[in-house]
Amino acid sequence: MKEKNIEMYQLKDKLKDKLKDQVKDKVTVLFDFDGVIMDTEPQYTLFWNKQGVRFLGENDFGYRIKGQTMAQIYNKYFSGKEEAQETINEELEIFEKNMSYEYVPGITAFIEDLKRNEVNVAVVTSSNSEKMEKVYAAHPEFPSMVDRILTGEMFARSKPAPDCFLLGMELFGATPQETYVFEDSFHGLKAGMDSGATVFGLATTNSREAIAEKAHYIIDDFRDLSYEKMISFDR
Q1: What is the pLDDT of residues 30-53, one digit of tens each?
Q2: Range of the domain at 135
Q3: Confidence band, pLDDT 50/70/90 cuts, at residue 156
Q4: 17 falls within a domain
Q5: In angstroms, rounded to a whole number, what is the distance separating the alpha carbons of residues 102 and 107?
Q6: What CATH number does the domain containing 148 carry?
Q7: Are residues 50 and 134 in the same domain?
Q8: 68-82 pLDDT, tens digit each
Q9: Is residue 13 domain-resident?
Q10: How many domains does the chain have?
Q11: Which of 68, 115, 170, 192 is the most exposed, fewest CB within 10 Å of its CB?
Q12: What is the DSSP string of the chain?
């Protein structure tokens, strides 16, 4: 009788391990890029502040357009200003080619930990493929760090619509309950929350206080985060 009980417990442990492996295979992490993977937002803020003063007579314009695509910015603030759009496009091309692409502290180690645990990892960004090519030139190792990179051209609706994150889930066959989103901008955080995923807000672009109610958890960077710690968070 004692031997049967031991066998039963061993069988239960095996089933638990199998179930754990099945769940782990479906865990999916979706990262925004600017302000999440790379600490580029301060540079973009300076660039767009300059354009705001120059063309709109507005200060702090760079903060107002965080997380928005070029189409959204132009439609809302530069509609009918074709010459201004052309000038900005030309200057942005040069700016992105020469800007510094530095990883957010702890992100490379965190992604490595996720991959060790067989987590699906994708970048979901509003940036276009042309901009990302500049990133790859600066960091040739980056594309191989993740499973997929989804750019702005791939979504019918940009953030704050959740389409981009829902597409990320679909590609990996993951449910919102199995998905974790990391974002920094207001638009991105709303998109993540509306997707149903567990959302971590990074205080790299906006203050902790500003995004406190817009995500499930707030972090400053990835230095104290691991796979085990991430999945231990309860909404």
Answers
A1: 999 999 999 998 999 999 999 999
A2: 26-40+101-232
A3: confident
A4: no
A5: 11
A6: 3.40.50.1000
A7: no
A8: 889 899 999 999 999
A9: no
A10: 2
A11: 170
A12: -HHHHHHHHHHHHHHHHHHHHHHHHH-EEEE-SBTTTB--HHHHHHHHHHHIIIII--SSHHHHTTT--HHHHHHHH-TT-HHHHHHHHHHHHHHHHHS---BPTTHHHHHHHHHHTT-EEEEE-SS-HHHHHHHHHH-TTHHHHSSEEE-GGG-SS-TTSTHHHHHHHHHHT--GGGEEEEE-SHHHHHHHHHHTSEEEEETTSS-HHHHTTSSSEEES-STT--HHHHHH---
Tokens describing residue 192: 């993540």
Give me the residue label for tokens 């990320």.
168
Higher pLDDT, 5 or 229: 229
């442990």: which residue's tokens? 13
